[in-house]
Design a protein that fits this description.
Elements lengths: L1 E5 L4 H11 L4 E6 L2 H8 L11 H12 L4 E4 L5 H11 L3 E4 L6 H4 L3 H25 L4 E7 L14 E6 L2 E6 L7 H20 L2 E7 L1 E3 L25 H11 L12 E6 H12 L8 E6 L2 E4 H14 L27 H4 L8 H14 L1 H4 L32
Parallel strand pairs: 1-2, 1-4, 2-3, 4-5, 5-8, 8-11, 9-10
Antiparallel strand pairs: 6-7, 10-12
Helix pairs in contact: 1-9, 4-6, 6-7, 8-10, 8-12, 10-12
């Protein structure tokens, strides 16, 4: 299968390119390297050393025996998007080329507008280019479980049946996004759904949970092909940040009570799920939604889990909640469905403790690169529009042997 990855240089994009090529697929992609610039802008850096695209491609050819076909360019430039699709002739397009950060979108008006413009326009460009160039291709668009918010009822996979005033219908489940970033993804979902209905395109919208991990594949051995790993407040997801904090002896910092519940899955499982989706495309005109996560955890439970696993490898770690910079419920009902991927054959690859232990050991080897990033752990981007660093709320939580 010819798979085109928009946003191929990122955490998920580069992982997916390597994962798919090792399973027999031809890979192409585009990127403008904005993720590298955004992370640098907020004072972060990838803990894993990331090479230039030229060096990455050379290693890719050496290890996999084929090139990754790459063009540098802006997905917000329609002419560029149409050209790369014509040149590559994809069977499937995986759209990962968006700003992936709620805090980044909440910095100020400029970052909010940029996030919405970049994400919505790039998706519209891809939709129009697919219609013009490869209308049979399967679009896999990365959404987020954050589109749903935290409603006080179970969350279906995209659609639900409703009865109102004696009438029944199946409708998109209401979205209650919690940041300008998450609202951009809601707009994307609506536009993709409309394009499928209007033009007969085929698309799978992946409502992905929080991804964590240093490795995209058990077979990953060549250090030149590692994917990035961020730990800053904007681009470091919560488990990745907790593991980094544990390695350098910084307290683990859940926000507020830590009662926020979310769906999580390891990076390797994200790759497995996306591969399953690509292997089972929808019909022409079909827009489908898959919720993609392995398990639901609270942030506080995850902090204690990281603390316990860290203790098993002689890392003494405190848990110290900080003032929550976000406007979100810290205690809430959360019961999302996620059956569609299991029906396609998804099975979680490893238990959480094993994945955490691998992450911690990988990060211990990278501690010289991690130490200079300690300053990036504590959040100062606030949902009320101010910039002030969150303070610790409580005394440390003793190490848990549970």
């Amino acid at each position: 299968m010819n798979v085109f990855i928009a946003g191929i240089d990122g955490y998920l994009g580069w992982s997916l390119a390597n994962y798919l090529v090792s399973r027999g697929h031809r890979i192409g992609g585009a990127d403008k390297f904005l993720r590298r610039a955004w992370v640098a802008e907020v004072g972060g850096d990838s803990v894993t050393p990331i090479r230039s695209m030229a060096d990455r491609r050379a290693a890719f050819r050496e290890v996999h025996g084929q090139d990754v076909e790459f063009l540098e360019g802006d997905l917000c430039d329609y002419a560029f998007v149409e050209r790369v699709l014509r040149e590559f002739a994809p069977d499937a397009i995986v759209h990962l080329g968006e700003v992936p950060s709620a805090p980044y979108s909440m910095i100020d008006v400029d970052h909010a507008v940029f996030t919405q413009t970049n994400n919505v326009v790039s998706t519209l460009n891809l939709l129009f280019a697919i219609r013009a160039v490869c209308p049979d291709a399967h679009l896999v668009k990365l959404g987020t479980m954050g589109e749903y918010g935290t409603p006080n009822i179970p969350i279906p996979e995209g659609f639900f049946e409703i009865e109102y005033r004696g009438r029944r219908d199946t409708l998109p489940f209401p979205r209650q996004a919690g940041s300008w970033y998450h609202w951009s993804k809601v707009h994307d979902s609506s536009n993709v759904m409309f394009a499928c209905r209007l033009w007969g395109l085929r698309a799978t919208d992946i409502m992905q949970g929080v991804v964590f991990g240093t490795r995209f594949d058990d077979r990953q051995t060549d250090e030149r092909l590692v994917t990035r790993f961020d730990v800053d407040q904007c681009f470091g997801t919560v488990i990745n940040r907790f593991c980094a904090q544990a390695v350098v002896g910084h307290p683990l910092t859940p926000f507020g009570t830590g009662g926020q519940q979310r769906g999580f899955l390891p990076l390797q499982d994200s790759m497995a799920c996306l591969t399953l989706v690509l292997g089972a495309p929808p019909e022409r005109g079909e827009y489908r939604v898959f919720n993609q996560f392995a398990e639901v955890y609270s942030v506080a439970d995850l902090a204690l889990r990281v603390q316990r696993v860290a203790a098993s490898i002689q890392l003494d770690v405190e848990v110290r909640p900080v003032a929550n910079p976000r406007a979100e419920r810290e205690q809430h009902y959360y019961r999302p469905d996620h059956q569609h991927l299991f029906d396609l054959g998804y099975r979680p690859t490893a238990d959480l403790d094993h994945t955490l232990r691998v992450m911690l050991q990988d990060l211990q080897r990278l501690r010289p690169r991690l130490e200079p990033l300690r300053h990036a752990f504590m959040p100062d981007i606030r949902w009320d529009g101010t910039r002030r660093r969150s303070a610790f709320l409580a005394e440390p939580t003793p190490a848990s042997n549970a």
